UniProtKB/TrEMBL annotation:
GO MF terms held by the record: DNA-binding transcription factor activity, RNA polymerase II-specific; RNA polymerase II cis-regulatory region sequence-specific DNA binding; zinc ion binding
Compartment(s) where it occurs, according to its Swiss-Prot or TrEMBL record: Nucleus
Record's function text: May be involved in transcriptional regulation.
Gene3D superfamilies xrefs: Classic Zinc Finger
GO biological process entries: negative regulation of transcription by RNA polymerase II
InterPro entries, sorted: Znf_C2H2_sf, Znf_C2H2_type
Family under the similarity heading: Belongs to the krueppel C2H2-type zinc-finger protein family.
Pfam families xrefs: zf-C2H2, zf-C2H2_4, zf-C2H2_6
Name this polypeptide is given: Finger OZF-like isoform X1
UniProt keyword list: DNA-binding, Isopeptide bond, Metal-binding, Nucleus, Repeat, Transcription, Transcription regulation, Ubl conjugation, Zinc, Zinc-finger
An example Gene Ontology CC term for this record: nucleus
Length: 523
């Protein structure tokens, strides 16, 4: 945009609206009918490449691309200092990979990429970290690694100002704002946030395993899996920490441990911001956002996101290594869980919200609470796209799609998606209504019903119709009202087919068919 600012404003219009006498790329103005409204939208299109822009400034900035003497890619608009770099770049779009590895037959777009790849087979790692001793095949990988020690994060998100160690991590993070998974598997349709995950995924379909163990020749789909496997052949714990002399089975574990001395948790979740000591811990954590639970208890069948959680859970069945609260006798799987519980008895709430000043028992409750202020909803349903602030709400929601109803009423056998719905239902058998209105004494089975009822006394109507402005005491009443404007009638009579905007209207109508005599409604 710097070059654009120096253009004479009177000449700018001529460049946009007329054909230039010089043989330069020019943009002309044209008017098209907007698809989203009935207004005409002015667009500026480039004569050379037909790209369109909504403002003159964008059109001028784009025009400068065609003026430069540097090699320029018309597909993605990237510049290159040398023709040789441009030739290599074009292969990204054409798919051409003329350089082949003689060992594993993998192909590459440039000779430098092939040489770099060759070090995987030779095991050569020329670039070593002076802080923790880990070695790398490429200098760029070492630079990134050192940033994790120093805490340097030079790549900042334009939306939320969060910073990242690499541009790749920033790109991956931006999908948390857009909810985009741009990389698609053509075999099964699976979608991925970054291309590296897709590459590894495709290998599982094709059976390609380009990473080979030098000791036993076993092959793996990723370098990470190979490194884990290599520890099997290594003598016990050959990697020593220079600070505390602790030993480890593989160098990756030592690197994770070194972060403890450096005081760092360099791996951040791009969905909720939580930090972890290693990429493997981060991967396990991300399963919470996906809702996938691959590990099952063989005693009761309950599912969990991680194997460690299954092990902890099974202690409840076996009674093994449980810890007990001295005050109330309640048992816990871990000492950390017990310490959190003890705060209930002591009244300690050590985690304050910096925005509103509310205090919480543990940090996870504070993290969830903060989303009320930020509006963040990191748990995304991959089926319908709906998002949630809490993982527990997300888990319950997914059962709508799966049809799972794990909570069963012992009296009538009816099943429910969540425990709170079962508890409310059980009150229909017991008649219990524990939520009382202090003004009129009316009792309710649900606290949410009491909250809505109180608005009758206060006159509060916080839900407003966007179409006509009419206010309502509850969101459900507003939802029914909206159907008057949209014409939607989702409840229909199975006998005569008549449709209604509310279930209560349908129930009243059904009496016409079921009653002995006709029902006369007064007008």
């Amino acid at each position: 945009m710097g070059d654009v600012d120096h253009l004479d404003s009177s000449n700018d219009v001529d460049l946009i609206t007329q054909t230039s006498k010089r043989e330069e790329p020019v943009c002309e103005e044209r008017v098209t009918e907007g698809r989203s409204s009935n207004r005409n939208v002015t667009e500026y299109s480039c004569d050379l490449c037909s790209r369109t822009f909504l403002s003159e400034e964008e059109a001028f900035a784009h025009k400068e691309i065609h003026k430069t003497d540097k090699p320029f890619c018309e597909i993605c608009e990237k510049f290159f200092l040398r023709d040789s770099h441009f030739v290599i770049h074009k292969r990204i779009h054409t798919g051409e990979k003329p350089f082949h590895c003689e060992i594993c037959k993998k192909s590459f777009i440039s000779n430098s990429d092939l040489k770099r790849h060759g070090r995987i087979h030779t095991g050569e790692k020329r670039f070593r970290c002076e802080i923790c001793g880990e070695a790398f095949i490429e200098r760029s990988k070492l630079v990134i690694h050192i940033r994790r020690h120093t805490g340097e994060k030079p790549f900042e998100c334009d939306v939320c100002s969060k910073s990242f160690v690499t541009n790749g991590e920033l790109t991956k993070h931006t999908t948390s704002h857009t909810r985009e998974k741009p990389f698609h598997c053509k075999i099964c349709g699976g979608t991925f946030i970054d291309s590296s995950k897709l590459v590894i995924h495709i290998r599982r379909h094709t059976g390609e395993k380009p990473f080979h163990c030098d000791v036993c020749s076993k092959s793996f789909v990723s370098n990470g899996e190979l490194r884990k496997h290599e520890a099997v052949h290594v003598p016990p714990k050959p990697f020593n920490c220079k600070v505390c002399e602790k030993t480890f089975v593989c160098d990756a574990d030592l690197v994770i441990h070194a972060c403890e001395h450096a005081g760092g948790k360099p791996y951040d979740c791009d969905l909720c911001g939580k930090s972890f000591k290693s990429d493997s811990y981060l991967t396990k954590h991300r399963l919470r956002h996906s809702g996938k639970k691959r590990f099952h208890c063989d005693i009761c069948g309950k599912s969990f996101a991680s194997k460690n959680n299954v092990v902890k859970h099974k202690r409840r069945h076996t009674g093994e290594n449980l810890v007990y609260c001295e005050t109330c006798g309640k048992s816990f799987v871990t000492k950390d869980d017990l310490n959190k519980h003890k705060r209930i008895h002591t009244g300690e709430n050590p985690f304050p919200c910096e925005i509103c000043g509310t205090y919480f028992l543990d940090f996870s409750h504070l993290t969830t609470h903060k989303r009320i202020h930020t509006g963040e909803r990191p748990f995304l349903c991959d089926i319908c796209g709906k998002s949630f602030a809490q993982n527990s709400y997300f888990i319950v929601h997914r059962r709508i799609h799966t049809g799972e109803k794990p909570y069963r009423c012992e009296i009538c056998g009816k099943c429910f998606v969540c425990k709170s719905d079962l508890s409310t239902h059980e009150r229909t058998h017991t008649g219990l209504k524990p939520f009382d209105c202090k003004i009129c004494g009316k009792a309710f089975a649900r606290n949410s019903n009491l909250i809505v009822h109180r608005r009758i006394h206060s006159g509060d109507k916080p839900f407003h119709c966007e179409a006509c402005g009419k206010p309502f005491t509850s969101n459900s009443d507003l939802t029914i009202h909206r159907r008057i404007h949209t014409g939607e009638k989702p409840f229909h009579c199975n006998i005569c087919g008549k449709k209604f905007i509310a279930h209560s209207h349908l129930k009243r109508h059904v009496q016409v068919h079921t009653s002995e005599g006709p029902i006369i409604y007064e007008t």
